Amino acid sequence: MVYEALDFYDIDSQLTEEELMVRDMVRDWVEEEVLPKIEEACSEGVFPDEWRVSLGEMGVLGAPLEGYGCPGLSYTAYGVICRELERGDSGLRSFASVQGSLAMYPIWDFGSEEQKQKYLPKMATGELIGCFGLTEPDYGSNPGDMVTRAEDKGDHYLLNGAKMWITNGTTSDLAVVWAKLEGVIRGFIVETGDEGYSAPEMKGKHSLKASVTSELVFQDCKIPKDRILPGVKGLKGPFSCLNNARFGISWGALGAAQACFHSAKEYALSRIQFDQPIASYQLVQNKLSWMLREITKGQLLALELARKKDNGSWIPEHISLAKMNNVDIALDIARMARDIHGANGILDEYCIMRHMANLESVKTYEGTHDIHNLILGRHITGIQSFTRSL
Ligand code: TGC
Ligand code: FAD
Question: Is the pTM of this model over 0.85?
Fold first, then answer.
């Protein structure tokens, strides 16, 4: 069946020629190269290397960054790229989010000139892959309490600690790692092959199966002095990267939702029960209409947020709202689409269960749904509710 992306308000008509060109390029690539292989990639638990190469060749890695060989596209274009990638699979968007927003961005914004020259051009082409180590086994929603430490040993730093749940960890050439140096959170670039560093893959996921997830382990890991990111101190560093990655998710989740809607609509029109297509029944139409309503609202939210990112009038809370809302509705849409597919909805012949399982992770990573609720609650009331004295 030919993919028709739901766009009820013709929102894409507001995109520039360049943004439309990027949309079509990524959409065609996903259709031709990703969808035929995604189920195999999931069952084997791999992110095919040819996808890394193609993403680099298409010039979509680090999309909104300028200079150092980066594409320098608008944030709107970056959102569109995320949407088209995640229509294929959240793991694909994850790969691009981590590379562009979480590994390239901190080097681009906080790195030294030498670091930018050394890493960014090769990361933009996909020759070098990066990951982002913030979460630890005992510190997820509260990264400020992290225990990974860096010690200044005169001519080098010594890192000790562990990160967990790190996308692209095992397959990365470098990791941007956040650790405390004399009690202050700093960013460090750790290269694969550095003494005392390992990145074992985490197995057994029922979600994001075509994405590599890893631990990062630092045991007296010795890194040269010139690998600290000089331009930032404190949680502002990792959170600045997360602003961009969360923005990408707010668009990406819509791609997964559009894929589920498309499949549910086609299925409802072709599936006959009680002598009629199930699409003719009011209860099914109500579900399809609810999906259309929520996707359209989500698209308006994402587009307005992209405009704000492009003109600089955004605040982090705008991003929290869009990430939280769009992932939430995408997950509900996936569940509803599964229901419309009946038993067939659990088969890998359809994209539904895969998107649903992926979105469970997307709801949790980059700040859980409820953490974004609390960020908004703090914005509304001025009261910080994350910590409680017992
Ligand atoms: P808080 O007191 O709120 O802030 C500490 C400092 O950080 C600054 N800040 C920000 N700066 C820029 N952008 C933002 N969005 C910022 N939010 C906070 C803030 O101004 C302050 O700066 P300063 O100079 O005054 O010190 O910090 P808190 O410890 O109370 O944090 C609260 C909370 C819960 C909101 C925060 O910790 C949080 O967002 N937790 C969620 C953790 C999270 O999102 N982890 C993501 C890990 S990476 C990941 O999931 C990648 S998945 C990749 C994929 O596969 O796609
Ligand atoms: P917890 O923080 O333990 O939260 C558990 C539950 O408690 C959640 O429902 C949460 O909302 C709730 N909760 C926590 N605190 C509060 C509170 N104050 N009030 C109310 N409720 C609260 N991290 C990285 O650094 N880099 C990566 O590349 C990366 N990739 C990931 C890939 C995958 C597939 C997954 C699943 C995770 C990834 N993560 C990554 C980690 C992710 O960011 C964390 O899982 C997330 O921040 C939540 O942390 P946690 O899992 O420890 O949950």
Answer: yes
